[in-house]
Amino acid sequence: MEYILKNGIVYDPANNINGEKKDVMFKDGKIVDNVSSDAKVLDVTDKIVMPAGVDPHAHVAGPKLVVGRLYRPEDSRKGVTAKTNVVRSETGFSIPNCAATGYRYSRLGYGTVCEAAMPPLEAKHTHEEILAIPNIDIPPLPLFGNNWFVLQLAKDGRIDELAAFISLWLKISKGYGVKIVNPCGSEAWGWGMNVHGYDDSAPHWDVTSREVVMALAKANEQLGLPHSIHIHPNDLGHPGNFPTTIETLDSVKDIQKNNPIRDQVMHCTHIQFHSYGGTSWRDAESGAEDVAKYINQNKHVTCDVGQVTLDETTTMTADAPMEYDLFKLSGLKWANKDIECETAAGIIPVIYSGKSPVNSLQWAIGLELFLMIDNPWQVALTTDHPNAGPFIRYPRIISWLMSNERRMEMIENKEVHNWVERRTALATIDREYDWNDIAVISRAGPARIHGFEDRGALTAGMNADIAVYDINPNDFDPSKNAAGVEKAFGNALYTIKDGQVMVKDGEVVSVKPSGTIWTNVVGYEDKEQKILDEIMPFFNKYYTVKFENYKVHDHYLHNPIEVKVQAGK
Amino acid sequence: MAYEEPITDYDHIVENCTCAFCGCNCDDLEFLVKDNHIVGVRHACRLGASKVMEDMDQRLMVPMIRGEDGELEEVDWDTALNKAAELIAGAVRPVFYGWSETSIETMKEGIALGEEVGAVLDNQATICHGPSLQAVQNAGYPVLTLGEAKNRADMIVYTGSNAMNSHPRHMARYSTFPRGYFRQRGRFDRTVVTMDPKYSDTAKMSDIWVGFEQNGDYEFYNAIRAVLKGKELKQDVISGIPKEDVYELVEAMKNTQFGVVFFGLGLTHTLSKQRNIDIAINMVQDLNKFTKWVLMPMRGHFNVNGFNIFMSYEMGFPFGVDFARGYPRYMMGETNTIDLLTRKECDVFMVIAADPGAHFPSGANKHLAEIPVIQIDIHWGPSTEIADVVLPGSFVGVEVGGTSYRMDGVPIFMKKAIDKPETCRDDEWIVRELKERVAKIKQAQVASK
């Protein structure tokens, strides 16, 4: 089937197309340069056309999500809709059911969402949920930062073997890249402890967070994986944590990147939670300026923000000790899940409110980071869904970024606490994003950060993943009309995925099964076998499942999108 | 017990099979196969082994329909499936109950059928750990995977659970006896406590038995919490336990490095029901201010947790999900099987991989006897006696592969070892067939209007 999207105003930053009126053509699911005269015409005259959105970091599938849904029926009771001839029932606000996750991303014009934390032991669960999510492609990132084999190999400085282990574990868990969460800290949580700072080590293992991160970064580049290491640094959410963040970013600057698409060797996720100054919540203040300054001066790092949206939400992270800290602060119901030999996780509801000084501070720090980081290719749009807010709030964040007037209105109307003025510089920044910047932070940038070759741009040969928004950019001032921006970006005029029209006029009109993006490293088979032989006795002794039953086999991938990587190339 | 000769007469061994009995989902079983029958099972406990080996005992082999004379009569598959589909398509308030002894793959077909006809989907949690899940929704859920207990725990508490009888390998494989990474001496590195009014087999294996009074659970845990918070106990004896013992126990719990509370239905179903679990969860949360503690419900069926997980990711609610209004609803006491049956709301009941005839209160069963019941199962049971259509399924983890979730949420693919009897069908196939046949009937109804 051939299509032509006619007369749209195209923003395709990867191809330096910035608001040009042109046609976008696609055939059999791919973008093409020409179509025949039989092509079906979709008239999008003077509407914004962009590549479909790419979410670089969200929690959408896996065991944490299920604990959240299972223990928060009050959340599932929000946003309930009946099934129709096209779609199944939707439930949930901060932790939607699988079907709703897919539909809601489609309505925002998104096509790809990275599931940011997959414990390998329960990878089959993550993959089962991916199968249940429609309409989007999902690369899951397995957790490596507290894995016992990784701790041991990093301690011994055996980078070769670590690379082989990563290569093998990506195959076993059908994962896409290397995720690190509070390195050594989640292992310390095995004893109810945490690590403090980058040079602290987990009890028993005698290896520091710095050593683990650097070893993983080296191994990642040795393999030449499409994505860099994806790190949630130590000390999340603690006042005065920004020096730890900068130390973490700085530690890998001498490591050579080994991938032609991405620019970074480290992607720091939800950096908002890692940019706090002060010493306690009494004197907490923004540390955004220092973090932004570091990023502006260093090309080897990228980040996503984790913008607080001021909603009631459910936080969930493999940073389990931090969740227990939150429990001690709020007393809300606390869930925890320790995963043997690998990681831990914690979950707790959070009510972010503009009336709260701390939440308002967090809100402002997120926006400061967006506005203080000069190069939009280095910063991506996320809420760390559902941690700082649900992903359905992306359009609202876009409206904040595009309208200084709206931001000032929020400050002046006391929609946020006056800590925003007293403890951050947000009120002094009048930068506003333009459409092209938005296209970078929500699609082109994240696609490059993840090293995708087949999405994030409207280049011929790429997947026909396209979003059209009902705004004429020549006749619309986003600075004066924040509500209009939010509405348009929340209800795509068209969302096209692999050439199929999924959404029309904000309604889901068709569904398709999701794809699972995973990385298959080739050329390391012998090394993989060697490390496997070495660790197998340990595995058999200390895991509680058999290795045969540990692996994720093809049964759990109905639509695999395999990314082949020639190791080291 | 008499000495049994090792089994040597078999054709081949299938390794790393998963036990389809309790929530331990032991995945290290070896099946000895001869002529497509399992003649021996290695590593499994008695419960698991006998279920696997005696799989042909009282096996439902052919589809049956209850005739005019009230007797079940053998029919072909088409007839049985059509009859069941007709019943479901014509139902106003269908309930699909069970699912805990079949695969996630089957549940997928089941939820599609349930959404289509507006059914209630519910599982055994409704009569077992349902109150635990209510408590989890009240208080939180600090849990672990079982390997954490094995590798780290130096204090294991069983409360309201007689694991030695109900989950015979639980202590051996996960909690008490195995040598863990940080517990190299296994049993000798751990303190095992049983808190139970009964001096159970598990209590006999323990270092400490706390035999509080029946229905004294809430008061007892309340006392522990009070002591944890630095309060003095005013009574000398709490729930039958001298206060000195409570102080001593709290001291021991505070001074462990990693403690786990495994709780069973003995805690969930005594007088205070979910409040018992509430306070146990709160106790664990309090203990974390001193050292590391977690807890875990001792789930019974091998996939009872799987259904709760499955329904949560599909629809946001763990069990008792009602699609009657076209969207999912979950309301304890309203959309659960027992309530629907005792209120005589349900008009067609499908039971899959469960035995309500044996487990439901008599009021619920009385209504079941009055309405059409469709049974999908592998063995004859009391439910067969009240069934109007019987569809013989196959044995997940033995005759057919499928996904299950262990009590701690670890997913396992249970592989197939032998072929199913020729006249039986896979559960997944049966439910899919029902779904397709019901859809056809519904389409015809729409067309005729």
Task: Describe the strand arrangement of the main beta sheet of chain B, using strand numbers.
Answer: 5-4-19-18-17-6-7-16
Please compute the radius of gyration of chain B using only Cα atoms.
Answer: 23 Å
- Judging from the principal axes of the Cα atoms, what is the shape of chain A? globular
Number of helices of chain B: 18
SSE class of chain A: alpha/beta
Report the sheet with the most strands of chain A, covering strand number, pairing sense and barrel closure. Answer: 9 strands, mixed
Helical proportion of chain B? 25-40%
Residue-averaged pLDDT of chain B, rounded?
A: 96
User: Of all protein chain pairs, which has the greatest interface, and how many residues does each chain bring to it?
Assistant: A-B, 63 and 62 residues
The total of beta strands of chain A comes to 25
Query: Any low-confidence stretches of chain B, pLDDT <50, length ≥5?
Result: none
Shape of chain B: globular
Task: Report the sheet with the most strands of chain B, covering strand number, pairing sense and barrel closure.
Answer: 8 strands, mixed
Q: Give the beta-strand count of chain B.
A: 21
What percentage of the residues of chain B does DSSP assign to strands (E)? 15-25%
| Average residue pLDDT of chain A | 97
Poorly predicted tracts of residues of chain A: none
The fraction of residues assigned to DSSP E strands of chain A is 15-25%
> Between the first and last Cα atoms of chain A, what is the distance in angstroms?
36 Å
Total number of helices of chain A:
19
Quaternary form: heterodimer
